[in-house]
Amino acid sequence: MYKKNISRREIRECAFIILFERAFQKNTETEELYSIVEDLELPFSDDVKELVEGVIEHEDEINSVIAKYSIKRSFERIAVLNKVILQIAVFEILYQDKTPVNAAIKEAVHLAEIYTYKDDVSYINGVLGSYSKSLEEDASNE
What we know:
Blueprint: H1 8-23, H2 30-33, H3 35-40, H4 46-57, H5 59-69, H6 80-95, H7 101-115, H8 118-141
Helix pairs in contact: 1-4, 1-6, 4-6, 5-6, 6-7, 6-8, 7-8
């Protein structure tokens, strides 16, 4: 269901569902993944497509960031739900200047509160908080 104007929260949630589906269908073309939008009657826009394709395009770099700041769990042991939420937030922080770092973290925590276990919410907040602090330190050293 294509919509021109949907909220940032709806964009993230739709992208999250598409990317979660992709995690189980790695060899599926991106365009085929969008069929889930119709099946689940999700709001869809160019912004959703941009977010999904951006995460996919920069997946290796995003995953490196997650692995670096995931102190409690090796990257391979991160639950798929958590990984997708983290990927969206890290992509927004790295590549979407219009999204403030704190907003990306807050929205990732919001998704985690809906879709993950309570302990995972703290874990996601911790990984993104550590990454955020490193960005602040880098900015102050420049």
